[in-house]
Design a protein that fits this description.
By secondary structure, this protein is mainly α. 66% of the residues lie in helices and 0% in strands. It contains 11 helices and no strands. α1 crosses α2 (16-25), α3 runs parallel beside α9 and α8 (151-169) packs across α9.
Length: 221
């Protein structure tokens, strides 16, 4: 009865729709559903630091390679061939800036989705022409940020980690994912950019401890 009452208290505070995911995953056992919710919070918190490190390293690596090719303000250089989606994303940052933003300001303000799309194929550009990021971004510059790996492989991996990051940021369930695979995928992707940062994450992250803990472990977050 205590578990049922505790579950309904969370349900009233967080909404029945949000809690239904955990109740369904637990086979409608309220105690297990509470444990799943707590595990989701713990996993989200544990993934936050490593994902933050990946995001910062990623945007700086992409910026460095494009800066070498197209200058410090590569994002305004027509030769980079950015598509309309990129220009629309940049417009808000540029509009909110007091005067001409520095490259450092621009890099810090753009979303993870913006950077991941730069290793994609490219969408439609201004003037109704299709952007070709393979030709304008990957081959001349970005392949050096991920040596030995194909653009498609990099884009797919980073996009999956972006989805994980967004679910955590929006407090959505991630318990349906395989957290061990997500952890391994994150470390591998970080290693593509910097083996030193990968080693730093492995040394300091508490995610392995959370992954090893049984579902019935005491709730701490």
């Amino acid at each position: 009865m205590m578990d049922v009452n505790a579950f309904h208290a969370l349900e009233r505070a967080f909404s029945p729709e949000r809690m239904q995911t955990y109740l369904d995953a637990a086979g409608r056992d309220h105690g297990t559903a509470l444990q799943l919710y707590a595990r989701n919070v713990q996993l989200g918190a544990a993934f936050h630091g490593p994902l933050q490190a990946l995001e910062v390293a990623l945007r700086n690596a992409i910026h460095a390679r494009l800066e070498e090719r197209y200058g410090s303000q590569w994002y305004t250089n027509p030769a980079a061939g950015l598509d309309s989606h990129a220009h629309d994303s940049m417009a808000g940052v540029l509009r909110r800036s007091a005067g001409e933003p520095t490259a450092d300001h621009f890099v810090a303000k753009m979303s993870l989705g913006f950077w991941v799309r730069l290793v994609g194929r490219g969408g439609w550009g201004n003037g109704g022409r299709k952007a070709d990021y393979e030709r304008t971004l990957w081959r001349p510059a970005l392949h050096r940020a991920f040596p030995g790996h194909s653009r498609r492989k990099v884009q797919q991996r980073l996009n999956d980690l972006r989805r994980l990051r967004n679910r955590i940021a929006h407090h959505e369930p991630i318990v349906g994912r395989d957290p061990h695979k997500d952890h391994d995928d994150l470390l591998e992707a970080m290693g593509w950019i910097s083996s030193d940062v990968r080693a730093w994450i492995e040394r300091h992250s508490n995610l392995p401890d959370v992954l090893r803990a049984p579902l019935s472990a005491p709730i701490r977050f």
